[in-house]
Amino acid sequence: MTTTTRSEDRNRDEGDNRQEDSDGGYEIDTDPGRLDIGLVHHWLSTDAFWALGRSRDTVERSVGGSLNFGVYGPGGGQVAYARVVTDRATFAWLCDVYVAPAHRGRGLGARLATAVRDHLAPYELKRTMLATLDAHELYAKVGFVPVPDPERLMILGPTP
Q1: Average pLDDT of the chain?
Q2: I need a surface site. Which of 34, 51, 108, 158 has the fewest CB within 10 A?
């Protein structure tokens, strides 16, 4: 898989950071201009249980305020997405990880999570978090562990 990182954080992402792999020509890119927002909205609002019904406006605003990762297939079309909400200094939240059904089972979710982890590493963040209902094993492969002290965490807003 080729990994290209291009983002608004030009100080760190300037240049061509590609990693070649023999996995069918997938590419991960952080260039928000390359994202197919309509497709991301469709995926999240119709097929992602955590975002069902999410409006196009909400998706656009979330993309605008996040570090975004698109995965593109050999033909150039987008096949997966993830975003990270971060201050690039102390904290990050990995969310909205989605792989199109036709591309599942190829390890793209783990590769995407690995690319996120590696991209964030130079920031030396104190904590990177995520929430998952059913992908604990996938994220464990990349180094995520259960919260050691969940009694310290709280949430503001609607809960399921």
Answers
A1: 88
A2: 158
